[in-house]
Structures are given as structure tokens and as C-alpha cells.
Design goal:
The protein has 309 residues and is α/β, with parallel strands linked by helices. It is built from twelve helices and eleven strands. Strand 6, helix 6 and strand 7 form a beta-alpha-beta unit.
Amino acid sequence: MAMLAPVAQANNYPTKAIRLVVGSPPGALGDVLARVSAQNMGSGLGQPIVVDNKPGASLAIAADTVAKANADGYTLLIAPDSATVVNPFLYPKLPYDPVKDFRSVGLIGKASLVMVVANSLKIDTVEQLVQAAKAKPDSINYGSGGAGHPTHLAMEMFANRMNIKLTHVSYKGTSPAIQSLVTGEIGAMIVGVAEAMPLIIAGRIKPIAASGPQAKEKFPALPELRSFNKDLDLSVWFGVFAPKATPQPVIDRLNSELNRTLALPEVRAKLDDFGMLAQPGKPAALDAIQEDDRSRFGPLVKSLGLKVD
């Protein structure tokens, strides 16, 4: 009887409100995705999904909250790749284990990236950027949203695979980094399409390459970064996760509702506003993406000697 109880509970799921924890403050991309998902998944599940913002500690607070929650499907996590791929290599004292503590519900989508340069750099192509960097190693500065931030690792991956040396300038977020690109304080950056597009349209920064599922759609005339090296097929993704011991029937129900939500035209349009392409699929697809990203970015973080206490 005791063994059958979890199965019975799973078959009746859900019978109360669900909490969706996000490590982003209100208004940030993660928060927007959480609220869009919560509204539409909740209507399909017949129970409200309440978004719980727990920003801070590079997503560790939110992730740890869900890792230690009851594995009954009533506490879920929405998080970007850095939470389960990069953080374990970056933080020696991480309070959660992304492999042992979570199981995948499903991928929400992937956001495309664009490599941009300052107008003052007088560079028009990736080839010219590489040539300039090889001629004078470390002479070109690039900005990022912080040490270990996706914008940092993407550019380091580019430099590593192109065998060049660039100088990293760390900022507290991507917004000040982009502004420094506009003024010419830094020369280059890889950043999300949604953040860069207004400045590109205004002619204040120059795009030279793109990456991700919407690279060709957003920038049909630009080369894709993966054309220079297969490991440069870069993007930022968000997924939904549950505590590890969550019953399979609950995962199946949540995955079904997530995929239904991602098929809605209004949801796809909302994601497109952020340069993101909805990517419905099975939990195994999210597992595979994490494994692939860990194999690429784990060695890179170690080689850079990045550690945050």
C-alpha cells in the first residue's frame, strides 16, 4: 500500500497550486519566461502556477530551493544553462548537484547570440577580427556580463577555438558592457540578439557573426559562428526542472503541458521578442543538451582557472 501511494498521487496530479521558482528578478528574461509558462501551463493543468522569484548567488538560491523541495511536482525550477552546466565548474561550494538533485521536465527554448564590434574598431568581418588579434595578441578588449557569465564563456570559446588572445573586461551585467561597446571602451562582444538589435538597427554597433536557432532568420547576410568551428554553435537556453525523485507520471504530465504551451502562437511570439525560438520536446532532449554543454564548457572553465567562492 505504501509503495502504491506515490503512484496514486501522481495519477491525481495536480490537486493544488504549483510553485515555479526562478532565479531572476521581476522583468528579467527568466521571469518573463516563467510567467508566460505559468499562465498557460496552469490553465491546462487546472491549477494555478505561482512564480516565486529568488534571485541572487548566480541562480544558486533558486536552484537549491527546488533541489531540497519535496519531489511531488509542486515545486519546479525554471533556469538557464548556466545553473546546471557552468555553475558546478565555477562554484566549488555549490549547495546543489545539477545531476543528482534534478530531473528534466523539458526545454523551453534557445536564444540566439550575435557577435558585435565597436564602430571605432574598424573591423567588418570575423576574419579581420582574428587577423587583428593574431597580429597583436591581447590588444582587443571584449566585454561580458561578469566572470563565468554566458557572454564571457562564449567569447572565450571563440578565442580558444580560433587560437587568438583577447583581453576580458568584466561588467556587472550585460547592459553596461554594451554601453561600453557603443563608446568604444571595449572592442567586441557576444551578446543576446534581443539586447543588441536596437543598437544594431541604430548603427551604433556592428554585427559580424551570429549563432543559434534564429541566426539566419535575424541576420541572413552574416556568417554563422559554427561555420568557423563546430564548437561555436552557441546559444542560451532555458529549461524546466523538478526534484530528482519526482514520479515519472508527473514529469510526463508537466512535459505534455509545457509542449502544448510552447506550441501556442502567442507564446512563440513572446519568445521571439527576446530572440528566442521555442523548442518543445521530451525531457531526454534537455538531458542531452546539458551533457553536450558540460563537455564543451567544463574544460574551458577549468582552463581559465575560474573559481568563485
